[in-house]
Amino acid sequence: MATATAPAPASGDANPSSPVDLSTIPISPDGGNTVDGKKPSGESAADEQITVFHDKDNFNVKHPLMHKWTLWFTKPPSGKGDNWNELLKEVITFNSVEEFWGVYNNIAPASELALKSDYHLFKEGVRPEWEDVQNKHGGKWAYQFKEKRSVPIDELWLHVMLAAIGETLEEEGDGEVMGVVVNVRKGFYRVSVWTRTIGKSIPNGGDGDVAGGKGRSVEKGKEILMNIGRRFKEVLKLPSSEAVDFSGHTDSAHSGSTRAKAKYTV
């Protein structure tokens, strides 16, 4: 499983400089850091750190994430002229490891979604739309799994989400990753990572060097995007012979397709 990290609390307070390995966090309420149901030697009840997985009613520790994230769901169109805003639904916003697992364990897995459904996991305040002000200058890395029956899509989608919320798809300060998406279609699953830019500085702005790559050279912008693509490919456990493509949202909009010509490939 891909290792993902998130800020851990110190003495009960959030400490963004101290990452916690998400792979050490239980993935179900049955998990825990005990041995045969017993607390580690030397640990008293008074100083025991109890997560939601040990005691869902009386836990005293949460592991905060670096950003708040919002889960969105696109329901299948009814064929009666539904528009995108009617199909796209905001599910919930969370900001801790425990809340993520609480959400994940209580929603349908991607493999059980109806055809033409999507899950979108985006940073809070960013709508999973090309037109969103934080997406309109960006693009996405995407890969289609065409052999649906042999694809462990639930495991792969989980790992992609963990890589996103754990901030392991990019380096600290890159500020590129906006969200991740899984599309369920008749002939394939598509998984993608949306970025803020296409490797160029955003015109007139962004908040400093982090948001929008203001002042970033084209070479540096491309390097950052290529690193994201390579990490994404690793999370998807793809062989080197398989290509993952990056395309700009503007190109996709102009071509009327989500499969616009690739700008970059890893």
TrEMBL record:
<comment type="function">
    <text>Recognizes and binds the 7-methylguanosine-containing mRNA cap during an early step in the initiation of protein synthesis and facilitates ribosome binding by inducing the unwinding of the mRNAs secondary structures.</text>
</comment>
<comment type="subunit">
    <text>eIF4F is a multi-subunit complex, the composition of which varies with external and internal environmental conditions. It is composed of at least eIF4A, eIF4E and eIF4G. eIF4E is also known to interact with other partners.</text>
</comment>
<dbReference type="Pfam" id="PF01652">
    <property type="entry name" value="IF4E"/>
</dbReference>
<protein>
    <recommendedName>
        <fullName>Eukaryotic translation initiation factor 4E-1</fullName>
    </recommendedName>
</protein>
<dbReference type="GO" id="GO:0006417">
    <property type="term" value="P:regulation of translation"/>
</dbReference>
<dbReference type="GO" id="GO:0003743">
    <property type="term" value="F:translation initiation factor activity"/>
</dbReference>
<keyword id="KW-0648">Protein biosynthesis</keyword>
<keyword id="KW-0396">Initiation factor</keyword>
<dbReference type="GO" id="GO:0016281">
    <property type="term" value="C:eukaryotic translation initiation factor 4F complex"/>
</dbReference>
<dbReference type="GO" id="GO:0000340">
    <property type="term" value="F:RNA 7-methylguanosine cap binding"/>
</dbReference>
<keyword id="KW-0694">RNA-binding</keyword>
<keyword id="KW-0810">Translation regulation</keyword>
<feature type="region of interest" description="Disordered">
    <location>
        <begin position="1"/>
        <end position="45"/>
    </location>
</feature>
<feature type="region of interest" description="Disordered">
    <location>
        <begin position="246"/>
        <end position="266"/>
    </location>
</feature>
<feature type="compositionally biased region" description="Polar residues">
    <location>
        <begin position="249"/>
        <end position="258"/>
    </location>
</feature>
<comment type="similarity">
    <text>Belongs to the eukaryotic initiation factor 4E family.</text>
</comment>
<dbReference type="InterPro" id="IPR023398">
    <property type="entry name" value="TIF_eIF4e-like"/>
</dbReference>
<dbReference type="InterPro" id="IPR019770">
    <property type="entry name" value="TIF_eIF_4E_CS"/>
</dbReference>
<dbReference type="InterPro" id="IPR001040">
    <property type="entry name" value="TIF_eIF_4E"/>
</dbReference>
